[in-house]
Amino acid sequence: MRTWRDGDGTLTVDTDSGAGSKVRAVPLRIAASYRARTKGLLGRDGIEGAMMLTPCGSVHTFRMRFPIDVAYLDRKFTVLAVTTMKPGRLGLPRLRARHVVEAEAGAMERWGVRPGVRLELKAAPAAAPETA
Length: 132
Prior knowledge:
Helices cover 8% and strands 34% of the residues. It starts with 6 loop residues before the first strand and ends in a 9-residue tail after the last strand. By secondary structure, it is mainly β.
């Protein structure tokens, strides 16, 4: 099992594997530490791209400033469910959910994220320390 770290990455959505498939690459913010997961999107007016909370099985939107789309993913990054949540709501825990991807409301539909779709998530390579 992979260990995730806080940082940036890329979310890739392949809507279909057929001839008319579209592949979208979306900027991703990874929140893997307790502190980063607790803060999440709180205090922001929006997000460019998406945020992945890991490990995570449920979310809330208390003190949020905008509605969000929430995709619940299993260990293999297959979408289990997608829902839109208004501010001030408590989401139900999802069985088998290991990761949660959040984005502004309407983004998941535009990207083609729906139950059964498998996402690809990649962390950006860590910057090498500079030597003097």
